[in-house]
Amino acid sequence: MKISEKLFKGIIIAGVIAAGPALLSGCGSEASTTEAVNITTENSLIGRVDETNKDNPEALSPHFAKASASDADDGGESEGEKTTIKGVREIALFHLSDTSGVKEKITKYESAWVKGQDIVTIDAFATDDDSVPISVGTGNVFKETWLGYWQSFDGYEDCKVGYNVSFKLKNGEEINQTILKPSDVFSYRPYMENYLYDDLANANSGWYSHLLDEEVTDDTVMDCVKFTAGEQYEEIDGNVTLTVFVYNSDKDFDSKGNYIGDVSYSVEIIDTQ
H or E stretch including 241? Predict the structure, then answer.
């Protein structure tokens, strides 16, 4: 869905008046580690590790836990049935392009993974457009752009953003984790570290970190995900899949916590080594 011309004029003016380096791409502005060489260079100033509960699998929500290989094919309460999401009907994943200077919709991201180093940060926007015309600007520019897409749908107030991360290990185990809160990433953290950000709530902040469970409210928007190679990332067999989705309520998940709604988008995170 296209964003309005009126909104873009406001964004451009705001960018000219208040442009600054604090939030280059919208994902948190805490200091980042050196990232592996990427096919498209990551330009975000994004957060590193908060060690709180890093090794605490008990913090994981029991309802949204990693699935066994036998669970992976169970698509819902009634196989093949999906719930119809009301409100926001488009969602996709974007990355700041080093060539075009804007956020471009991606289907995959390839780079050489290095243990403990950042791989990529990816933004979710409520649009099927091929690109989002935002590059360097202040947090308010990002916020206005993001809300311009999200609020263009009637009923957006009843929608939330969630994620799923899935991959297979070399021992045959399959990881299939629904992410509705920050601590949901702990189940697979030895292999891949993920950090979630709410850039909208921090639009005027010069520095901020990734989200913690105790910071999440009804107004929190997890609009950005960062990937960092875990200590045991070499045990991952193949690619990692990131899926973003829009949901209204618990009814959009089956009894195992798998998303069964009809508004989602996936990308492949690929190790080129």
Answer: strand 236-247
Q: How is residue 138 written in tokens?
A: 């202040």
Residue by residue, what is the 3-state secondary structure of 218-236? Answer: CCCCCCEEEEEECCCHHHE
Indicate the residue type of 89.
R
Amino acid letter for position 107? T
Only one residue has tokens 């791409």, namely: 25
User: Is the separation of the CB atoms in 46 and 22 below 8 Å?
Assistant: no
Spell out a b/e string for 10-28, using b for 16 or more CB atoms within 10 Å of the CB, else e. bbeebbeeeeeebbbbbbb
Spell out a b/e string for 256-266, using b for 16 or more CB atoms within 10 Å of the CB, else e. bbbbbbebbbe
Residue given tokens 């956020």 in the structure block: 103
Question: What gap in Å lies between CA 16 and CA 14, rounded to an integer?
Answer: 5
Q: Which two tokens stand for residue 249?
A: 């309520």
Q: Is 40 helix (H, G, I), strand (E, B) or coil?
A: coil
Distance CA 65, CA 57 (A): 10
The span from the CA of 232 to the CA of 223, in Å, is: 27
Show the tokens assigned to 58: 């008990």
C-alpha torsion angle, residues 61, 64, 68, 70 (rounded to 10): 150
Q: For residue 38, which phi and psi values (nearest 5 degrees)?
A: -110, 155
pLDDT digits (tens, 9 = 90+) for 152-179: 999 999 999 999 999 999 999 999 999 9
pLDDT tens-digit series, residues 78-109: 557 899 999 999 999 999 988 888 899 999 99
Cβ pair 87, 158 in contact under 8 A:
yes
Q: Quote the DSSP letter at residue 261.
A: B
Predicted TM-score (pTM) of the model is 0.75
